[in-house]
Specification:
Largest sheet: 7 strands, mixed
Number of helices: 15
Order of helices and strands: EHHHEHEHEHEHEHEEHHHEEHEEEHHEH
Number of strands: 14
Mean pLDDT: 95
Radius of gyration: 22 Å
Strand content: 5-15%
Oligomer: single chain
Helix content: 40-55%
Bound molecules: pyridoxal-5'-phosphate
Distance between the termini: 35 Å
Low-confidence stretches: 326-330
């Protein structure tokens, strides 16, 4: 029997390391393995390459290299932004975020709340959109930080971060954005956004896992999350992940080349996938506003279907997609993002996310469109017979 083709539609979970990125990092595992903090030439040569990577990562978001703090990824960057902003201004003990943030924001904000911080979690509407008036009203004299994501990882819905940052600035409140899902898909400019902090993660843009960055705007008060050596200008202790950082720099460089062209190509594939499914299958609906949205993400609700079963059968057909659900104690919980958008538990449990990338082809989309109707019909029939 022929094995099915491998179709990866889960690029918001992670991406394949680009061959150029792998090539860039290997010398730092093989020959140039020195510690960049060492005073001798062998270490200093590595430090210079770290500086070059910092320039490239900074260019991706139009930042000054001195504003880049390399971290172990999006989770650490998000934790560090919340902790760093609050610790630097002890007189401000109020934090504002949204109900659809990644768990690295929501769980850390919950911890800060347990430690005595006041927390406002803003709702979203059924399209996944934020009410800016409500956000503005939530700002208090003691608000330290607003943290709102640029692009939602489950639905791809974009928040108007430049407007959020402007509201914050007017009230003297710091603004952080989790741009982990936006990088490599949209052009990013911290100056145009006007944010004080921004998080990125390399593995979402064809870099390796375990490396990311936190942009900290010049002259912003900030306390490190990790204390240790004086690395990263005293803003993040720990010997730098040199191969990872060099790879991140290369991935940033690649992401900047042809970004709009690639995004247009990926958008066309995503639209073909989405329209193909919506047209050929009854009882399917999109979750979240169609625009403004990431060009690569489609989140679809399949009536009368459990995402768990759908993903299993897709997997058997060689297709990787995901449910916007956290797997806890063996059961799929309904996604907090879809729940916040007012989806019923049944709709949330029947929703899956397709997130495309640069490696996807039109043939893969056609293969999915060919497989899906029979899979959905089979699951619906099973559900029907279980109910009878
Ligand atoms: C929006 C968002 N923020 C943060 C993260 C965490 O990034 P990392 O996997 O690098 O810790 C993710 C990862 O899925 C994400 O989608």
């Amino acid at each position: 029997m022929n094995s099915p083709p491998f179709c990866y539609f889960d690029c918001n979970a992670t991406t394949r390391v680009a061959p150029e990125v792998l090539e860039a990092m290997l010398p730092f595992l093989r020959q140039q393995w020195g510690n960049p903090s060492s005073a001798y030439g062998f270490g200093r040569a590595v430090a210079r390459r770290l500086d070059q990577a910092r320039l490239k990562a900074a260019a991706l978001i139009n930042a000054d290299p001195r504003e880049i703090v390399f971290t172990s990824g999006g989770t650490e960057s998000n934790n560090a932004a919340l902790r760093g902003a609050l610790a630097a201004r002890p007189e401000c003990r109020h934090l504002v975020t949204t109900a659809v943030e990644h768990s690295s924001i929501l769980k850390f904000a919950g911890l800060l709340q347990k430690q005595g911080c006041a927390l406002t979690v803003l709702p979203v509407d059924s399209n996944g959109a934020l009410d800016l008036e409500r956000l503005e009203k939530s700002l208090r004299p003691d608000t330290a930080l607003v943290s709102a994501m640029l692009a939602n990882n489950e639905t791809g819905v974009l928040f108007p971060i430049a407007e959020v940052a402007a509201l914050c600035r007017a009230k003297g409140v710091l603004c952080h954005t989790d741009a982990v899902q936006a990088a490599g898909k949209l052009r990013l400019d911290v100056k145009a956004l006007g944010v004080d902090f921004l998080s990125l993660s390399a593995h979402k843009l064809r870099g390796p896992k375990g490396v990311g960055l936190l942009y900290v705007k010049r002259h912003t008060k900030f306390q490190p999350l990790l204390l240790g050596g004086g690395q990263e200008r005293g803003r993040r202790g720990g010997t730098e992940n040199v191969p990872g950082i060099v790879a991140f720099g290369r991935a940033a460089e690649l992401a900047m080349t042809d970004l709009e062209l690639q995004a247009t190509r990926v958008r066309a594939l995503r639209d073909r996938l989405e329209e193909g499914i919506l047209r050929s299958l009854p009882g399917v609906a999109r979750n979240g506003a169609p625009e403004p949205r990431l060009p690569n993400t489609a989140n679809l609700a399949f009536e009368g279907v459990e995402a768990e079963g759908l993903l299993l059968l897709l997997d058997q057909a060689g297709i990787c997609a995901s449910a916007g659900s956290a797997c806890s104690s063996g059961a799929l919980d309904a996604s907090h993002v879809l729940s916040a958008m007012g989806c019923s538990p049944a709709r949330a449990r029947g929703s899956i996310r397709f997130s495309l990338g640069l490696d996807n082809t039109a043939a893969e989309i056609e293969y999915l469109l060919q497989c899906l109707p029979a899979i959905v019909a089979r699951l619906r029939a099973q559900g029907q017979s279980q109910r009878e």
